[in-house]
Amino acid sequence: MRFFTIGYGGRPPSEFLDLLRRHGVRTVADVRLRPDRASMGTYTRSRDAQKGIAGLLGSAGIAYEPIVELGNVFLDWADWRGPYRQLLEGAGDLLCARLDSLEAPFCLLCAEKRHADCHRTLIAEHLVARRGWSVEHIE
Q1: Which of 14, 15, 29, 122 lies 20 to 30 Å from 53, alpha-carbon distance?
Q2: For the whole prediction, is pTM greater than 0.85?
Q3: Would you say which domain of life the source belongs to (predicted)?
Q4: H-type helices in 9-80, by residue range?
Q5: Residue of 41, 37, 113, 33 lying closest to 80 (CA atoms)
């Protein structure tokens, strides 16, 4: 299975949607710990599915699935990568289980524009190593 990752940081909604469409993304898996607190309002998870990130994606025919259990609970730590990697080593299969039910191809979403600065890269590495999936980071 092939999947993607993307960060919305600094992207206007039109560019964001264009990138997803060009890659044939069917579902966006939001791996932010607090999708209801996005710094850019368009990308906020709203209670109303017609607004915020769900409404934006829905207008383009792309499904939206928040998967907060994959959020980075160590984000405030100076070196969050080590603890997050340990979390995936111990519970990654359970934390990633809901990804199996998503319409493919799916795309992991977080705020950081560059995947190298984001925990979604560690999730992707886990999926590649444990499941043999392939990933493309949309930048």
Answers
A1: 122
A2: yes
A3: Bacteria
A4: 13-22, 52-59
A5: 33
**Which stretch of DSSP H or E encloses residue 91?**
helix 81-95
Question: In whole angstroms, how far apart are CA 134 and each of 43, 53, 56, 77, 128?
Answer: 26, 26, 27, 29, 6
Q: How many CA atoms lie within 13 A of 24 on its CB side?
A: 6
9-45 tens-digit pLDDT: 989 999 999 999 999 999 999 999 988 776 657 887 8
Q: 132 in helix, strand or coil?
A: coil
Domain total for the chain? Answer: 1
User: Are the C-beta atoms of residues 120 and 43 closer than 8 Å to each other?
Assistant: no
The whole-number pLDDT of residue 49 equals 73
CATH of the domain at 86: 3.90.190
Residue 58 exposed, middle or buried by CB count within 10 Å (0-12, 13-18, 19+): middle
Neighbours of 103 (CB within 10 A): 11
> From CA 110, how far away is CA 30, in angstroms rounded?
6
- CA atoms 127, 133, 134, 138: torsion sign: negative
